[in-house]
Amino acid sequence: MDVRACGRLTLLLLVLTWVTGLIEAVSLLALGPVFTAMQTGNVLFLSFGLAHEGHLPALASGVSLLSFSAGAVCAARLEGAAQARGRSWFVLGLSVEAALITVAAAIGWGLAPRYGAPTARHLMTASALAVAMGFRNVTSMRVNLPGVPTTLVTRSMTALLGGSALGRDSAFGYGTGAWGRRARAVASMFAGGLTGALLVRAGCPVNWLLLPAAAVVLGVALTYVRQPAVRGLGCC
C-alpha cells in the first residue's frame, strides 16, 4: 500500500476509533454499566458480579459477552467468505455494523439514559451494540493497521510511550513517525468518549446517542468505496 493510501486508511480508522469511544460512553453511562467493544471490562465485571462484590450486576456483562461473541463469529464467517469471493469485506463489515447500531437505536428509541439496574430494553440495546462491536473487532483485526486497532488503545498507549523519547525502545519504533499515529488513536478514543459523555449529560434519549454513530460508520464505508486506491488493505 502506498503512503497516501495508507494515510487515507489511517484517517478512516481514526474516525472509527472515535465512534468506539462514543458507543462505549453510551454503553457505560446510559445502558449499563456495561462495555460493548472492550470485552476485557466485561470479563472483569462478570467476575466481580459473580463474587457479589462491587455492586456490579453480572447479567449485563454476560449478555454483552455472549452478544459480542455471536457478532465476532458471524463477522469472521461473513468477511472470510466475502474475501474468498473477491468482494470488499471491509465495506461489508462496516455496513453490517452500521445496520446493527441502527437496530440498537431503534430498540432504544425514546429510551432515557439510565446508569445502574438497566431495564430489559437497556439490555437489549446493549446486546445489539455488542453484536455490532463484535463485527467491528473482526474488521479492525483483519485490517491490522499497527497503532490503530479502533476498539482498544492500551497497546497504542504502550507503543506510544515505549517508542517515545522517554521509552527510547526501537522495538516500538523509536526514531520513526509511528508515534503520531498512536497518539492520534488515543486522542480519537478520548474525543469519542467525551462526545458521548456530553450527549448523555445533555439528556439525549438513547436513539439520538446512537444514530450519529451509525451514520458515521456508514459514511466511512461509503468513503472507502469511493477511494479505489485504498482497496489493498494491509500493514503500512
Using only C-alpha atoms, the radius of gyration works out to: 18 Å
Average pLDDT reading: 91
Uncertain segments: none
Estimate the helix proportion, in percent: 55-70%
Task: Enumerate how many helices there are, as a single number.
Answer: 8
Which strand-content bin applies to the residues? under 5%
* Largest beta-sheet details: none
Shape: globular
Separation, N- and C-terminal Cα atoms: 7 Å
**Helix-strand category:** mainly alpha
Order of helices and strands: HHHHHHHH
Overall number of strands: 0
Short description:
69% of the residues lie in helices and 0% in strands. It has helices at 3-31, 39-50, 58-84, 89-107, 120-143, 154-162, 178-201, 206-225.
Structure description:
There is one protein chain. By secondary structure, this protein is mostly helical. The protein has a domain at 19-151 and 205-227. It has eight helices and no strands. It has helices spanning 3-31, 39-50, 58-84, 89-107, 120-143, 154-162, 178-201, 206-225. The longest helix has 29 residues, at 3-31. The protein is globular and about 50 Å long. The mean pLDDT is 91.
Descriptors for this entry?
236 residues; mainly alpha; 8 helices; 69% helix; 0% strand; globular
Element layout with pairings:
Elements: H1 3-31, H2 39-50, H3 58-84, H4 89-107, H5 120-143, H6 154-162, H7 178-201, H8 206-225
Helix pairs in contact: 1-5, 1-7, 1-8, 2-3, 3-4, 3-5, 4-5, 4-8, 6-7
